[in-house]
Amino acid sequence: MGADRVFAYGAAAGLLGDLLLGDPRRGHPVAVFGRAAGAVERVLWRDHRGWGALHTAVCAGGAMALGAVAARLVRSSPAASVALTAAATWAVVGGTSLAREARIVGRSLEAGDVEAARARLPHLCGRDPQALDADGLARAVVESVAENTSDAVVGALVWGAVGGVPGLVGFRAVNTLDAMVGHKSPRYRRYGWASARLDDLAGWPGARLTAVLAAAAGPDPRGAVRAWRADAAKHPSPNAGPVEASFAGALGVRLGGTLSYGGRVEHRPVLNGTGRAVVVQDIERAVRLSRRVSWLALGVCAAARMLKKGRTS
To answer: Do residues 78 and 6 make contact, with C-beta atoms less than 8 angstroms apart?
Structure first.
């Protein structure tokens, strides 16, 4: 069995496993990696870009090396290779957990329990929930669903198609490091610079594919393309901009605006300014769009890998 079929079968099984099982409550591989990366940080931390780059290289490179060794050990067995790819895909994608957390916040808002929704929002994103009313919470959830469709699913599939198991685990390692140290706090402004820049590079292709598929699978393709072209570049993130703008246009809603992180207020540009304000019901619409995008991404990535093999054979 060729590597193209190993990826297609394994990634499909891994996505299905995520759909049926979700993330484990304890001992998640990504959490294990996070603890290991934290231990490396305690040894290496200096307020310097070079030490941060070393931290990124050790952690991301180590994860990819482990993935490469595992893939090499099972390469003589197609069944074992598919199983390893399935396990790696299940470990690195998080579509089911994303949908579950979004729906929990949505149910709290539908019940009028804003405090419960605020308490749950940190499971999705790092915004200050106390600064948000019900509409602001709903908007934060929709934006998080959009961005994490790329970060937690599509980006991993893209790099899995490119590099197999090492690509899958490498992308998740880079994305996790960015979440841990890639923000502009006084401690990580220099140390996390390399992780943040590498995450921008690694996330670029997945973000564009997510935006394309959101336009194709959403209820308003023209609106998605229009919002992407008009507003994506205004977003401070080069990857979140296209994804959130495309989701906003596809769903016909207005995203962006004022938000708060760690007590720091940010005034972000509005995405799809002609859209209406987000309401609670849009959370479920965003979750369903995210699910369609994820499965379409699997098809695109598997087909691209098979096409590449056909051209090189």
So the answer is: yes
Secondary structure E strands in the chain: 253-261, 264-271, 276-277
Are 127 and 262 contacting, i.e. CB atoms less than 8 angstroms apart? no
Token duo for residue 254:
């207005």
CA proximity to 51, closest of 197, 196, 191 = 191
Instruction: Express each pLDDT in 132-171 by its tens digit.
Output: 889 989 999 999 999 999 999 999 999 999 999 999 999 9
Tokens linked to 281: 């019901």
Cα 170 to chain centroid, rounded: 13
For residue 56, give the amino acid letter: T
Residue of 31, 77, 113 lying closest to 85 (CA atoms):
77
Phi, psi of 255 (to 5 degrees): -115, 175
C-alpha to C-alpha distance for 215 and 235, rounded to whole angstroms: 18
The C-alpha angle with vertex 192 and arms to 175 and 70, in degrees rounded to 5, equals 40
**Running DSSP on this structure, what letter comes out for residue 261?**
E
Query: How many residues are listed for the chain in this entry?
Result: 313
Q: How many CB atoms lie within 10 A of CB 186?
A: 7
DSSP 127: B
pTM, full prediction: 0.93
Burial 238-260 (b: 16+ CB within 10 A, else e): ebbbbbbbbbbbbbbbbbbbebb
Query: CB-side exposure of 99: number of CA atoms within 13 Å?
Result: 22
- Helix 134-149 × helix 281-312 angle, to 10°: 10
Q: Round to whole Å and give the CA distance between 268 and 222.
A: 23
Degrees (nearest 5) of the Cα angle 95, 99, 102? 140
**pLDDT tens track for 35-67:** 999 999 999 999 999 999 999 999 999 999 999
